[in-house]
Structure formats: structure tokens, C-alpha cells
Amino acid sequence: MKILMVCLGNICRSPLAEGIMQHLADKERLDWEVDSAGTGNWHIGSPPDRRSIRAAADEGVDISRQICRLFRVSDFDKFDLILVMDKSNLSDILAKARNNVDRNKVKLLLGDKIVPDPYYDDTQFAPVFKLIEAGCKEIIKEYKTK
Ligand code: 4NP
């Protein structure tokens, strides 16, 4: 199973989601490959936000070597599941979908809830880690036999 995590900047939420999902999948010995990308181009080539790196490190997850990249249409071909953090990510990615096969791969990580953007609030990185972790555990439950 190949999963792509998507947010706006690809420096706060989706790097956490990539790191957490890969960490949990590895722990469960699932042969899953996880990546992340952003819909906005401001931070291409940069590592994750240091507040995300720290929030992850505090929970034993190393995201420090990730590099920010932009979502590309070919990601629809490479990945089985594209998990987005909020409704604007959802509409941005759905706008790039070429057909229903593409569209059916795209879901909110938290089902019907959003992962709020912590970029402007230092206090939100630890809670956002927990939200993403809970979402990843649900996804593993749902997809682990596939
Ligand atoms: P992210 O957070 O989408 O969780 O990576 C953001 C990071 C940077 C910006 C916006 C959101 N920005 O506007 O630069």
C-alpha cells in the first residue's frame, strides 16, 4: 500500500502524518510506503518546520530528513490513497483529479474532521501530533488487511 499525505505547506501537518504513519506501519510490519506533499510552493526543498520536527521527536518519530515537495498529478498514479488534512486541501487536490479513479483515492485523514493548521500557533503542534496519530491508527485498522 502506498499512501501520500497532503497539506498546504508540506512543512507542518503532512510531514508529521508521513512520519507517524510510516512509524506505525513499520511497527505493525506492514509493507507500506508513505510520502507527503503540499499544494503550495513556498517551502519546496526545505525540511519540515522545526516545531513539527520537535513535536515528532518528543514522541520518538524522526521527521528531520524529509524534504518539502509539491503535489503532482502523477501522484494519483503512484499512490493508492491520498490523505488530506483539511477541506481546502481536499478541494485543491480534487480539482487536479483527472477521473473518478483519481477522485476515489482522496480522503480526509480524519474521515469527517479536519486537522487544523498549527502554523500560526506554537501550542498546537503537540495536539496536532495526537490528532494525526489517532487518524493514522484508524487508517491502519481500516486498511491493514489490504
Ligand atoms: P502545513 O502548514 O500546511 O501544515 O504545512 C503551513 C505551513 C506554511 C504555510 C501555511 C501552512 N505558509 O503559508 O507558508
From TrEMBL:
List of catalytic residues: C7, R13, D117
Coiled coil feature spans: none
Pfam families linked: LMWPc
The entry's keywords: Hydrolase, Protein phosphatase
UniProt keyword annotation of Cytoplasm present: no
Record GO terms (molecular function): protein tyrosine phosphatase activity
All copies of domain Phosphotyrosine protein phosphatase I, residue ranges: 1-142
EC number(s) given by UniProt: 3.1.3.48
UniProt-listed Gene3D superfamilies: 3.40.50.2300
UniProt xrefs under PANTHER family: LOW MOLECULAR WEIGHT PHOSPHOTYROSINE PROTEIN PHOSPHATASE, LOW MOLECULAR WEIGHT PROTEIN TYROSINE PHOSPHATASE
Record-stated family: Belongs to the low molecular weight phosphotyrosine protein phosphatase family.
Protein name per the record: protein-tyrosine-phosphatase
Taxonomic source organism: Mucilaginibacter gilvus
